[in-house]
Structure formats: C-alpha cells, structure tokens
User: What shape does this take?
Amino acid sequence: MKKVCKFLLKVLGKLTVIGLVTFAVTFTIYMTNAENKLIYYVVRPFLNKHYDSQVRDRRIV
Amino acid sequence: MKDLKHLIYFENLLQNAQNELVDQAKAAGQHALGYNCYYVPEVLLNLPGCFSSRLRAPRCTSTDIAGYYMTNRSCPYARSLLERAIEGGYNYLDALLGAESCATMDRMEEHFFLLNPVKNDKFFVTQLDPPMKGDNINLEYYKVQLRVKVLEPLRDKLGVDISDEAIRQAVEKHNRLCRVITEIGKLRKLDNPPITGYEFHVIQLVSQVCPHDLILPYLEETLDELKTREPEPKFPFRARVVVAGSEIDDPDFTKLIETCGAMVVADRYCFGSFPSREEIEIYANESAFDAICRHYLHWNQCARFMDGGKIDQRTSEVRRLYDEFKADGIIYENMKFCEFWSYEKVLKSHIFINEQHIPTCTIEKEYALGAVGQLRTRFQAFIESLEIKQIQGGK
Amino acid sequence: MKLLDKMIAPVDKALERFDPLWQAEHGVGGLRSRYYDKTGVAKWREWRGVKSTLVDYVAWINNLLAMAQMVASAPVPILKGFWEYRWMGSYLGTFMFIDRLFEGFRGPELKIAHMNMHAIVQSLTKKIAFGLKNDGRLGGGPDTENIIPYDETISPLFLMGFKGLYPFPMQTLPEFIICDIDQHIEPYYIDVAESFGLPADVCSRCAAETGVALDDAFLKVGKVMLSTNMPCNASEATSMFQRRRIDKPDFPITLAMQHQAPEAIPYSRATLEAAIAFVEEHYGVKYDWDEFAKYARLLNEQNNIELEKWEIFKTPYSALCGIAETLYRLYEWQSVNGQESHFNKNDRKVIKLMRKCYEQKHEPFGGKTRHRAFLWGPSAVYYCDFPTWVQNCWGINIVLNMDSTMGFNMIDTEDRDKGMDDLTALTQRATMRHHAVGGWENVNAVWEWAKRFNCDMVLMNDNIACNGMLGVHGMMEEQARDLGFHFIFIEHDLQDSRTVSRQDMRNCVNNYMSVVLGEKPLDPTLVEFDDSDAY
Assistant: This one.
C-alpha cells in the first residue's frame, strides 16, 4: 500500500513538474509572442519565396 | 452618298429627351412611359394611349448633383439620367417602368420616388426584379414581374387597356416598326452599304425615344429612300466591325469609330438593334402577353444572365452578327463602372481572340464623350491591325 | 472565487503599469506601444491582469491544440496544401489575427470572445483538413466525389438533406476568411484577375475570386458547382469565370433580388427545389427531408439564442460585442448554418454568461463606451479588427453589424410545405444581399435597427466599388441628418488594402470624432500608426 502511494506520489510529482515546465515554456512563448515572430520573420518569407517561384497554370479556361 | 432627307431632323430629335414628337403625343393626351432597359418590353409601353420613351440624357456635361447622391464612382449613364431628372428634363413622363437590372440602375430609379424630381402629379415608379436565367422557372417569374410591375400599374394608375386584344394590337404595331428598322439594318450586310453605321445608329435611336406612331412614317420614308440611294463608288471604310457591350446612346461614338476608318455594321449593345428589333411571334394557343415574355427572355443578351445557355447564347449571337454582317473584327465596350460588361468583355475577348481567332478590341467608355483622344488611338490601332490582316490575306 | 480575486489583486496592482489600458489612461503609452513599427508584430503579448491574461493564454493553447489536431488528422495533405496554395501560407497568421481582434478585451467580454473564436477555429481547421484531404489536385480522398461545392454566399442548410454528401463553400478558404487574417493575400489574386484585363473598379472581393479561379487555386472537389446571384452584380459576373475554370456542371441558384415582395418566395423556392433536383441527378442521392429537419432544428436554436442575445445587446450590459459578435454571427450563419452542433453548445454557454453579466449589470470595456454604433454596409474584410480599434481608440461600441441581421426566421420542421417556404425566406436573407441590394427599404432599414438597439451612431461602410451602396450616398447623409444620428462614412476597398489602407479608414473616424464631435481619444497611441506591413 505504502509502495503504491509512494509510486502515485512520484507520478503526481513528475506530472506536476512536467506540467510546470510545459506551462513555463508555453507561457514564455506566449508572452514573448515568439511563435508569431518566427512565423513573420522566418516561415512566411520562406514560403513566399517558394510561392513566388511557382509556375501556376494561369489561364481563363 | 447623298444626305438622307430626314437625318438632320432625326439628329435634332435626339438633342432632348422631350423632343417635338414627344410633345405632340403628349398634347394628344398620350401617356409617356419612361424605361431604360431591354428587360422592360418596349411593346408593353406602347399599349393604346401610351408611348415608350427610352431614357437618355443627351448633352449632359456635368453630373454634380447626381454625384452627390450616387458618388462619382457609379455608372455615368445612371448618374446622367438622375442629373437630367433633377434638372427637370423628364417632367413629361407619366411613369418610369424600371428594372433592377443592375444595382446602380436600381439606385438611380429609386431617386425618382425619393426625391420626386419629375414634376407631374400622375408620375409613379415601378421596379422589376428581372430574371437571371433563361429557364421556365425564370420565365414564369418574368411574367409575374411584368404583370405586377408593368401591366397592372398601367391599368390601375393610368386606366390603360391591358386586355389580350390591346396587347395584340401593340404587338402588331411594334412588329411593323421592327420590320422597317430590320430592313434598314440589313442593308449593312451589303459589301458596299448605302447607309453608314452612324446613320443607322441615329435611326435606331429615334425609334426608341420617339412615339412610334409619329416616327414610323419618317422611318418608312427613309427606308424607301435607302432602297434607291446610291452608295459611294467604292466602300469608303477600311474595315467592318461589330460593336458589342453595354449602354451606348450617343451616335457620336459610332461616328468616332467610323472616322477612324471602320464601319459599324452591327450594333449588339443596350440601345442597339440586336436585340430590340426582332419581330414578336405569337404562337397558336398562346396569349400575346406570354409571347412577349417568352420573346424578350429569349432575345435578351444582358451580361447578367448566369446560366450556361444564356452565356453561350451571348457568344453565339455576336458570332452570328460577325458572320452575317461580314465583319472583320469585334469591339467590346463597357460603360465605366459597369461590372457585368467589365467581366463579360474580358471573357468574351478571350473566347473570340484565342478560341475563335477573331480580332477583338476591348475598351471602357464614359457616358458623355468628352476627351476621345485615347479612344481614337485605340480604334486607329485596332483598325490598322485589321487592315494589315486583310493585306496579309487573313493570316 | 472572491478569495482568489483578493489574492490576485496585489499582483495586478504591482503589474498594472504593464497593462496598455492603464498606460493609455496615465499617458505613458497604450495599446500600440508594444508593436514593432509597420509590421503588426508585437514585442510581447498584452498584459491584461492575471485572470484575463490566463484566459487569453488558455485560449491560445486551445487554438494551438485545434491546429495540431488539424495537422495530425491529415499531415501529408496539410503539408502539401501549404506547399501548393499561397493562401494556405496566410493561415499561419491566425494567432496574430486573434490577438488583434481582442486587443483591450478583459473579463467576461474576453472570455466570451474566445469561446466564440475557438468555435470558429475548430470549425475552420476541420474544414481545411477535410478540404485538403479530398482535394483532387493533391491526390484526392474518400469523399472527393461526395462533396457539393457551392458559392460561399449561399446558405448551405438546404444541402444538409443529402445524407452522405458534404456541402463545401468554395471561396471561403482561399478568399474570404483568409482576407480577414492577412490583408496582403487577396491583392495577389486581384492582380492576377486584372492581368487578364479586368478593370480595377469592380468589387475587389469578386475580382479576388476571379483571380483565385484564374490562378487555379480552388480546391478540386465534387461533381458539380452551385453558383449564385448573391449578393450582387459582380458576384454574378465572376461566376462566369469560375464556371469555366472549375469546369463542372453548374447550377446558378438565382434567388429573387427583391426578396421582400410577395412574389419572391414562390420563385426562389422553385429555384431551390430545382437545385435540389440537380444535385439528386448528379450524385444519385435522394433528398431526405428528415435529415434536413435535424439540422434545421439546430439553426432554429441558434437563431432563438441570437434573438435573446439581441435583447441584451439593446442594454449597456452586453458582454458580447464588437468583433466577437460580428465575426461569430457571420461565420455561424453563413458558413455553419446549422451544420455543426458544437456551435449550439457554444451558444448555450455564451448566453448563460451573457445573462449573468446582464444581471450583474456588467458594463463591457470598463464602462468606457461613449457611443453605441450600428455598423452598416459591407465591412472591409482586410480590416476585421476595425470594431476593436474604434472601441479602444474612441470608445465606440459596435453593438450590432449589418450582417448579423441575416435570416433569423424559424423553419417549420414538421410541415414540409411551410418548412420549404421558411427555408426559402431564410436563404434569401444572406450576407450583404439582404441589405445592399434589392431595393431602397433594405438599406434604409438601418435607422430602424439603430433605434431599436439604442444606438446614437451609424458607421456606414463605404466599399468604394459597391454599386448598391454607392447609389445611396446622398440619401443616407440626408436621412442621418434628419433623424439625428452621428454618421460616418468609412471608405474601404473590401479586399484590396492598397487602395484604401487601414489608416485611411481610421482617419475617416478620427476626423469625425475630433473635428465634428471634438472628442479626445481614449488611447492616443491608436490614432495614427503604420500597420501597412501587418498581416
């Protein structure tokens, strides 16, 4: 019984740590607006370069 | 060629919406019924005791007041009509039978009941909700619309006889006029026609803006005159073109093209004779009213029709005119801010140039022809290209 | 809860100087201070106090999860979609878009706004995944042939009577919603259309649709195309191009323009019935009224709740307002239209919260509202957060938007004949066409609406290429003067931000508020700023 409790506490503890770390990481990304900066300054310029080089089947019919 | 006997008289009739023939008909107690779109069958406005008057705003130089109401970013034709109405140019009208053929037209017509610019106590406005497809569902809707928005108001407000007999009588008279105009128009098919596109434009316009009873004798005399008129010894133009597109009620536009060297042999635009001068056939077991609805829905070439059948009909009709009138090219025009014809001209010029290999030029125009330098350059370049093609044997 | 509030209070107090609303009030900054110039990229996210920041953070996580779910449900098609379609790249701007929309929101209005937004995100991500998974261009999928592509301005409820088929709004993904998110995407497609000779003075929305068609950027799905005459001339005209490029049997659903007239219903109903027969013929599926009725009941519930919301909107205590109301109602009505039951769940939760706020006499935006405005006319798609800006800058609360007044009649789900008439009436009252065209009474209805919702101001969107609205300019001015409303025309070019920029739009309001009303802005950092490079 004691062992089970200890194991559960350990799992709970680990989950709490994981939760806290996840929160810390995601909240930091959130607060610093990091994902939008990445998208605006890195991802979209890369994609736009690709789109601009596309040969599209551009016609009326 | 010798001048046509009545040409100057016709030109004068086009100087004002309220011309001398309109005054004569009014003095005789006839009701003047204004309209501005093919969707409103001209023939129904020529029932006994009435005459049709397709609205124009000739010599309109500024649309300041209408611009305040509708902004300067809206169709100049609609704006010019409103301006002319506010100036008092349509006080002879007893009714405006309008149609929501496009949003701007609808708005312009609304001002006729919001501002009451027409100083005539009897005056009223109705607005049709015109169909957008050529199928039976839309035919039935068209019938309902014409009954509710045209026939019944004419009967209830002006006491007009709308019986089948009266409508048949109107059809008969209408067909007589159509036969004359069509016969005159057919002369343009000749290799060296005894009529110019400009002259025909003037003739077609007077037939739309004057009371039919009063203008018909002049038109019949003109037809007789044309039958014996000697053309120029040699075809005086360098090319023949079909003009297709939105509203043109200024014959000077046709003159502009012709002074650039191309004869306008067919007129497929609003106010043109294709469509408008086809005879109405009444089938057995069909009421005259039903025949009119069927006829107008079938012949209507408006760019707002959305179904494949009508879209293709628009192409084939222009193609038919191109072939029958032995044209060398097509000019697609649209009135500035006209969305329907803006789209139509892009698509159709593509079809004609790339799929049917017919030289086609597209232009955008104002209602009042002011500075025409750019247009002249476009036409000259196009006509030159047609000429070069002819010299190269169509290659 | 009160204890928690007490615990949070000192933290909020200590950090209040980071709150842009506090900064604006104390003259040391404002909502615009945290942005890099021009870009619309914030240096950090808005500090809204502990509780509201956490609400915003949780909403961000939820939306992130919805997007992860979307990618997980169809990873290869989604990646291929990003590679194939320029408009897909713009969806990466979604987070920035949501941040923009709810700037300055706090407390219940923020919570409700995010509830509504999350419903949209869930719906849209599923739609993107489903569309790309079945896109013939990317290899197709199990439902490619079971999709009914239709013009996005048709209300799709009637198509729910086809069990096993999936109505799909063709223009929504590449043209409409994406222009809300990224102001730079549609000019590309407009340029494509204009490169074929289309004049620049036609409605930019329709020009963009034409451009998408010519650029071959529509998904390839379904066996037919249902086009429509709604809402206006240019959309009718652009259908010609889409019809040719999409190259499938098409059926134009042309409904009566003058739909208030008694003769409209029989015609429009016959057209809808013909459209149903057309789909039956091409897909070999029989129409099932009971199946339709299931979804009609969902829409009835949504509309019922909407009508209750309207009663609260009439008071100063509505926690749902501005863009949170406008965008949600537009999406829920036009795109969802009874098809997705999670919107009903969301509506039930939202109305509960709204009732509570009403009972507590909660005034949104800290009671800083100075004017209650009705937003009329087709709104600028590229400036979706305009209602947020007018609230934050000038204290003008957009109580209701024109598009929110779309079909709200109930559909009889028992009596099929009556139900068809109800459905027809509802379908006719779709986005824009119910107001901007079809006769004077439709557009002139604004004053009655504004009066009913206790508004002192009407903001009139002035799409510079909308023929229906341009034709009423003078009359609207005169009506406003006669009826005593504050009235501002806000010029815009619907989907082309190059013609009339967001700042040009803001200037229309700035000039009226400062010159005519002589008022001072709530947040001076918002009066003039450059966001020309922002999404």
In short: Chain A has one domain: 2-53. Residues 2-53 of chain A form one domain.
